[in-house]
Each structure stands twice: as C-alpha cells, then as structure tokens.
C-alpha cells in the first residue's frame, strides 16, 4: 500500500514492554518534526483466532511536547502484524490540535526500536 502526504518521520526507542495474558504494551519515546518529543503506549491485542500472536488490533494513547511548550494528546487505533521479531502497525491517530493522521510503524523488537512515518489525511 502506498501512502502520500508524508508530514513527519522519526526513530523511536522502546523504553519498556508490559506483557499481559491477552495483550502486550510497547512504551515508546522519540522525536517527530512538527510534533516535538513524543511518548506513546501501544497496546497490542490478538485478532480473532490468532493463536500464534502474529496479528491483531492496537490501541494507544500518545502525548507530544512541542518546542514552544504546547502539549498535544492523541487517541490511536489500528492494526498490527508480526513477522518474527518485526511488527508492522498502521494506525489512525486523532490529535488534540485537530490533526487526523495515518501512522506507519516498523518495529524491530530485538533492537528495541521503531521507525514512524506520519501521513496527513486529506
């Protein structure tokens, strides 16, 4: 799938992982141009019939602190798919400043890192 209208991209660090019986949460921190310092907690749940924990839905909450001190909040929902130690997520983010964006995440679990690309919805 091709995405257009790239507005920001950046590298994030997985700062912690919280595991539950039916979910896992990846806590991340990074920097995105136009948004500033960003913190996001992605909670991944398995999809219907997903016995090998390779796909499902993701819900998240995020915060961003811009250089001018403005704090943004975001509600996030989407899907995820795992292939070995890599996870790909596609999310729809509703940001408190009125922005609505699509975010594409490539997560490298062994490296505790992720690369995010943010696309504006037209």
How would you describe this structure to a colleague?
It is a single chain. By secondary structure, the chain is mostly beta strands. The protein has one domain. Helix content is 0%, strand content 70%. The chain has no helices and eight strands. It has an eight-stranded antiparallel β-barrel with strand order 1-2-3-4-5-6-7-8. The radius of gyration is 14 Å and the shape is globular. The protein starts with 5 loop residues before the first strand and ends with a strand. 21% of the residues are buried. The mean pLDDT is 94.
Average pLDDT across residues? 94
Fraction in beta strands: over 45%
Poorly predicted sequence stretches spanning 5 or more consecutive residues: none
* Net shape: globular
Instruction: Give, in order, the helices and strands.
Output: EEEEEEEE
Q: Enumerate the strands of the largest sheet in spatial order, edge to edge or round the barrel.
A: 1-2-3-4-5-6-7-8
| Number of separate structural domains | 1
Determine Rg (CA atoms, Å): 14 Å
User: What portion of residues is helical?
Assistant: under 10%
| Structural class designation | mainly beta
Distance between the termini: 17 Å
Biggest beta-sheet profile: 8 strands, antiparallel, barrel
Number of helices: 0
The total strand number stands at: 8
What is the topology?
Layout: E1 6-19, E2 24-32, E3 36-46, E4 55-65, E5 71-83, E6 86-95, E7 100-108, E8 113-120
Antiparallel strand pairs: 1-2, 1-8, 2-3, 3-4, 4-5, 5-6, 6-7, 7-8
């Amino acid at each position: 799938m091709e995405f257009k209208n790239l507005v920001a991209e950046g590298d994030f660090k997985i700062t912690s992982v919280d595991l539950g019986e039916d979910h896992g949460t990846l806590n991340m921190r990074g920097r995105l141009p136009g948004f500033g310092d960003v913190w996001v907690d992605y909670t991944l749940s398995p999809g219907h019939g997903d016995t090998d924990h390779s796909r499902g839905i993701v819900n998240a909450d995020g915060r961003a602190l811009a250089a001018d001190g403005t704090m943004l909040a975001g509600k996030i929902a989407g899907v995820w798919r795992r292939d070995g130690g890599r996870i790909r997520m596609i999310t729809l983010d509703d940001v408190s400043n009125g922005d609505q964006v699509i975010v594409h995440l490539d997560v490298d679990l062994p490296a505790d890192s992720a690369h995010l690309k943010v696309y504006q919805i037209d």
